[in-house]
TrEMBL record, chain A:
Keywords: ATP-binding, Nucleotide-binding. This is D-xylose transport system ATP-binding protein. Gene3D superfamilies: P-loop containing nucleotide triphosphate hydrolases. CDD domains: ABC_Carb_Monos_I (cd03216). The keyword Hydrolase does not apply.
UniProtKB/TrEMBL annotation, chain B:
It is found in: Cell membrane. It comes from the Bacteria. This is Xylose transport system permease protein XylH. Transmembrane segments: none annotated. PANTHER family: ABC TRANSPORTER PERMEASE PROTEIN YPHD-RELATED-RELATED, XYLOSE TRANSPORT SYSTEM PERMEASE PROTEIN XYLH. One of its GO terms (cellular component) is plasma membrane. Part of the binding-protein-dependent transport system for D-xylose. Probably responsible for the translocation of the substrate across the membrane. It is a multi-pass membrane protein. It comes from Rhodobacter capsulatus. One of its GO terms (molecular function) is transmembrane transporter activity. Keywords: Cell inner membrane, Cell membrane, Membrane, Sugar transport, Transmembrane, Transmembrane helix, Transport.
Length: 267, 416
């Protein structure tokens, strides 16, 4: 069941520590008083229903939004993430749900966007080699890196976006619904990749609606509900416990449906 | 040229079985046809347009294709070309600058007033005109960045304000004649390259293609990537050299190659380098393609806009100075009429998309040749400006239609 954050987390100093993060849009408070820790070599899943504030939180960490109040500590020091480039230099890279790729540019240009090698005489050869290596690490199936993104499928675009997030060798990788548009094989690849990231000591923040994926790879599962912390679970927690925390009660439409399906399966 | 098989196993970019490996000349030709068919027209419409224009006008009036008429055409093209080069930058971002005509007019007025009337040295006067352009560009960019004022609106009001400023500083006399003996006017009207220099300069692009082509081949081979075959590079370099030397020889039958046009071409080449080979250029395309993606990639979108608008307006000012040199006068009419439309039309005809994220510096060069050919041909036919305006308008409409048809085709072929 939900336990105190501190008792679950490893004793080491976290890479990222959020305390009391609040974000209001006019009269609507999208986030209120959010606490979150992320350690090196740990996958933290961020789950919650639509409108729970997951994407808002991600965007604050990515420097797209500024929090209304609250503190962010990175590597033990207070940090302000006032722009996307600040987040990148700090070592937080993000794969957004809408991927953020430029359709008119090719794969290499997208991978290196904003981080081009030798800015005054672009080193296309080195960038292309590095692009193939990155895509190779992801076991990506992309036929040509010199085609514009417009010619790629949804899954291929997701792969490019994930490869892109690794380019700067960040400390923390945030993945917003990384498997939503992927096929079975590619989903497995991405889950493998997430574990590889953890093994290499990155902190990973994973947002997903897919409970099986979340429980398969996460070390901790932080639940948001209506913009507030609503418990932290280990991967041993049952699906029902997590769903209950997401919905806010044990008796809700999702839990009842799960119960019916379980009965059916037993028959 | 013999095609020896690659020593390394399989190049990185040929590993996927779904990729057709286009090698040699036939491969290059096939890839080119594929591109055209999918709507990636490149310079094809311009080439077809130029051939059509030449055939039509030279049958109506044989003077059109005479060397000296073409020399005149190149003199005229340089002035509008600079304005168009600036427009390309703005269009790449998916923005528009409707005030380039007025900006060029104001720049010519500034040079006239400062240099002729007030005795300021010419370089300083030109510098002042360019700074005025940069300042105006900064104003547009600030209006867009700070107040999210659409560039369509801000530059439309700029059009009127700049025109007013032009009339104000010219005062009641309305026009200032520039001295014929001055360098500026000689540059704009008679300075022609010596034959040996023009022939020599026409060799440079071919040599450049060879040098960079072979250097790139070596670098890609060393990095285990596929590369163009030597025959493709040789044929390309040969074709370009033949074409340029032929053109120079033909122009040298008349007065020769204008210095002013060469300066313009060099600026286009420099801009093309900046757009395709620098981080700044890549950022320009990214902002034009997907502004949110660019912002999230850490590109300083506001700064990119600022540089684009400042460069765009400065180039418009430079075009104004050049056209003042061409006409040996700074008048109230400078930059009015069809200057605006011609500059924008040239950029679009050359293949710069009005929707942002697609285009090249060459577009300004190629497009301005088409536009100036039309206007020159119509002038030779003694058509009134009323008819010229209508015909130029129709040509712009056709160019935009071709652009959006090609865009739809690209979309259905999975190309942006």
């Amino acid at each position: 069941m939900a336990v105190n954050d501190a008792s679950l987390a490893p004793a080491r100093e976290p890479i990222l520590r959020l305390r009391g993060i609040t974000k209001t849009f006019g009269a609507v408070s999208a986030l209120s008083d959010i606490d979150l820790d992320v350690h090196a070599g740990e996958v933290v899943a961020l789950v919650g229903d639509n409108g729970a504030g997951k994407s808002t939180l991600i965007k604050i960490l990515a420097g797209v939004f500024q929090p209304t109040s609250g503190t962010i500590e990175f590597m033990g020091r207070p940090a302000s993430i006032d722009s996307p480039s600040a987040a990148l230099t700090l070592g937080i890279s993000t794969v957004f749900q809408d991927l953020s790729l430029c359709e008119n540019l090719d794969v290499v240009a997208n991978l290196f966007l904003g981080q081009e090698l030798s800015p005054w005489a672009l080193d296309e050869v080195q960038m292309e080699v590095r692009a193939w290596q990155l895509l190779g690490e992801l076991a990506a199936r992309i036929p040509s890196v010199r085609e514009p993104i417009a010619s790629l499928s949804g899954g291929q675009r997701q792969t490019v976006a994930i490869a892109r997030s690794l380019l700067l060798e960040p400390k923390i990788v945030m993945l917003d619904e990384p498997t939503a548009a992927l096929g079975v094989a590619q989903t497995a690849e991405v889950l493998n990749l997430i574990e590889r990231l953890r093994d290499r000591g990155y902190g990973v923040i994973l947002i997903s609606h897919n409970m099986d994926n979340v429980r398969a790879v996460s070390d901790r599962i932080a639940v948001l509900r209506l913009g507030r912390n609503n418990g932290t679970f280990t991967r041993d927690a049952t699906r029902e416990q997590i769903v209950a925390a997401i919905m806010g009660a044990d008796d809700n439409v999702a839990a009842r449906r799960d119960a019916i399906e379980r009965t059916r399966a037993q028959q | 040229m013999s095609m020896k098989p690659d020593a390394s196993p399989i190049a990185y970019d040929r590993a996927d079985a779904r990729v057709r490996a286009d090698t040699g000349l036939a491969g290059a030709a096939r890839a080119f046809l594929d591109r055209i068919r999918s709507g990636d027209l490149g310079i094809l419409p311009v080439v077809v347009g130029l051939i059509l224009i030449s055939v039509v006008f030279s049958t109506l009036n044989p003077v059109f294709l005479l060397p000296n008429n073409l020399v005149n055409l190149l003199f005229d093209a340089a002035a509008v070309g600079f304005i168009s080069l600036g427009i390309v930058l703005i269009l790449l971002l998916g923005e528009i600058d409707l005030s380039v005509g007025s900006m060029s007019g104001l720049a010519s007025a500034l040079v006239g007033v400062l240099w002729v009337n007030m005795g300021v040295p010419l370089p300083l006067a030109i510098l002042a005109a360019l700074s005025a352009g940069a300042a105006m560009g900064a104003v547009y960019a600030t209006l867009l960045n700070r107040f999210t004022m659409p560039s369509f609106v801000s530059t439309l009001s700029g059009l009127l304000a700049l025109l007013g400023m032009q009339l104000y500083i010219l005062g009641p006399t309305g026009s200032i004649n520039l001295p014929y003996s001055s360098f500026l006017v000689r540059f704009g009207q008679i300075l022609i390259m010596p034959d040996w220099m023009s022939y020599g300069l026409a060799l440079v692009p071919g040599l450049g293609i060879l040098w960079f082509g072979f250097r790139q081949m070596r670098a890609r081979a060393a990095a285990n990537l596929s590369h163009a075959s030597a025959s493709v590079v040789l044929v390309k370099a040969g074709a370009v050299t033949l074409l340029l030397e032929g053109a120079v020889a033909y122009l040298n039958l008349g007065r020769g190659v204008p210095f002013m046009f060469v300066v313009f071409v060099l600026c286009v080449a420099a801009m093309q380098y900046a757009l395709t080979r620098t981080k700044w250029g890549r950022s320009m395309f990214a902002v034009g393609g997907n502004i949110e993606a660019a912002r999230r990639a850490g590109i300083k979108v506001k700064r990119i806009r600022l540089t684009a608008f400042m460069l765009g307006s400065s180039l418009a000012a430079l075009g104004g100075v050049f056209s003042a040199a061409r006409l040996a006068t700074a008048s109230q009419q400078a930059g009015t009429g069809d200057v605006n439309l011609n500059a924008i039309a040239a950029a679009v005809i050359g293949g710069t998309s009005l929707f942002g994220g697609r285009g090249s510096a060459w577009a300004a060069l190629l497009g301005v040749l088409v536009i100036q050919s039309i206007s020159n041909g119509l002038t030779l036919l003694n058509l009134s400006s009323s008819l010229r305006y209508m015909i130029t308008g129709a040509v712009l409409a056709i160019a935009v239609i071709i652009d959006s048809l090609a865009r739809q085709s690209r979309a259905s072929h999975g190309r942006a």
